[in-house]
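Work Package 3 (structural annotation) set out to generate three-dimensional models for the target panel prioritized at the project kickoff. During this period the team completed the workflow that converts sequence records into discrete structure tokens, so that structures can be stored uniformly alongside our sequence database. As a representative example, we reproduce one entry of 159 residues exactly as it appears in the project archive.
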Amino acid sequence: MGYTNDELNSIFDRTDGCCHLCFARLVFSNYGRFGARGAWEAEHSNPRANGGTDRMNNLYAACISCNRSKGARSTRVVRAWRGFTAAPLSTAKREKLRLRNALLGATMAYLAARYFQVSSCHEWPPHSSAAGSFPPCLGRTLTLTRRSRERSRRDRPAG
């Protein structure tokens, strides 16, 4: 089946230019060029031989060798053979995860700065009862400061 340029763009962008089966990088301009680096075809996730359709939600980019060796098997089975459990993420989903992780990192940095301070190794152990505890990793350890402990007690709701 022939596809329009817009359909090919949509299929290619759905996996961010990676093979849907082996995650290899693909080259958009090498669509259907067997033997070229990054050559790819539109792959039916649910094969037409098994009742799959030519609708866009069933079409993904796959390198030609993966697509041809797949035969009439489902995409999930072929990915499992290679040790993969999920499809590659689209650009939009990848950016969404990147932003979420950045927000989580900023939140953790804020919490660490508010409730922890870094003390140097020569202060370890802080008192004799900690003599049997773990030594600080690479000469530095995070210790909860007295002021932050008092602040957290004060900020707790009464109850």
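The radius of gyration is 27 Å.
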